[in-house]
Amino acid sequence: MQFQYWNERIEKMPRAELEVLQLDRLRAEIGFALRTPFYRERLAAAGIAGPGDIHSLDDLRKIPFTGKSDLRQGFPYGFLSIPRHDVVRLHASSGTTGIPTTIYFSRDDIKNWTDNMARCIYGAGCTKDDVFQNMISYGLFTGGLGLHQGGEEIGMMVIPSGSGNTARQFKLMQDFGTTVVHATPSFLLHVETKMKEAGVARESLSLKKAFAGAEPYSEDTRRRIEGLLDIDVYNSYGLSEMNGPSVAFECQCKDGMHIWEDGYIAEIINPDTLEPAADGEVGELVLTILCREATPILRYRTRDLTGFYTEPCPCGRTHRRLRRIRGRSDDMLIINGVNVFPSQIEEVIMGMKEVGNNYLIVVEKDGAMDRLTVKTEIGEDIFMDDSRPLNALKERIMQTLQVSISIRPHVELHEGGALPVSEGKAIRVQDLRPKDI
Length: 437
Ligand code: AMP
Ligand code: ZN
Description:
The protein is α/β, with parallel strands linked by helices. The protein is built from 11 helices and 20 strands. A hairpin with a 4-residue loop joins strand 7 (about 230-240) and strand 8. The longest helix has 19 residues, at about 15-35. The mean pLDDT is about 95.
């Protein structure tokens, strides 16, 4: 196989040299962190007064972990390390409402992110001859603009089609000869079904590749999409706290995602003991971003469960490969690519006085897409045989939830006492999607 590299020197840098670069960049990042109120306090408590207190990469372990709740507490500007007028953009985590986790970018931060993204896309074999249709949400979510910028950097023609509307997506693919797409894996499976329904012949499309990410999926799902659409599918991993996509991406070998270690320090920990996992073992990924001046985040607990490959990749890149994400070490659900915490749903429904005390969140597959149903019991003063107030209540729950979690759920109302009550810890979430990862 002929491999191509966006930045061969960095991508194939010997590990010893890479570690020297990481240490340098870690010190610089600590310099930025010390300008934020949050880290000034945190780092001082850990005995780190300046970058000079970091003597080796092992000293990273002196720094306490940062979690999502820290980012929320620091909202809006607690993690900003440069003057506000030097910020050129902000992004937020998908599905976040209430207090979002917001990330700020300087002009250089955007340049770095774009360059990393180009490295991923080029490494997957794309060139400026490709036509790239970005079928994912734009806006605060990083998946839209992230891949968009990277595609343009390479010189591909980018079609910012956004998510949904399959009929329009097919039309664009046919009119402009799209060769590469980016979408969630569930949407890609759905595209195939819709293609059949709409009578779109595979031969009328020029598709060759897809980037799939934003939610967990199995190797079987990858193969299924590849078979159905006759394309190569590359796994793309990222999270808004760490810029978004471009954290780790598969090369042409399609066997694990190279994490760009000149831009991140990656650790795998045991989520229970918080101690480092053994080489190659699966645990929680902890990331420190290295080249971001506006929002430094050190030792961020991603909650994503994965591990490193221990053997080198045939492509010759020295940056380690991450395994497919196995799941999460917290209760966050990813529904059609959107992050949802059960507590967000609880907050909405328990805040409505017409709603009774018991509820159940059910997530299942509806064809290729995920389907969220929220079942609630109704309060004592509403009667099941009076459909008008019931329908109004259902609609109101749906709408309020949609505002809060960015997804329109199905809502089922049940009589008081009708939903199952468990004897031990309440079971509020039933995730019935097949677990084949
Ligand atoms: P967001 O901050 O909205 O971009 O969401 C980031 C989260 O999406 C990650 O922490 C993962 O849980 C999930 N995610 C993103 N990409 C992938 C992927 N390729 N495989 C599995 N999960 C992913
Ligand atoms: Zn590789």
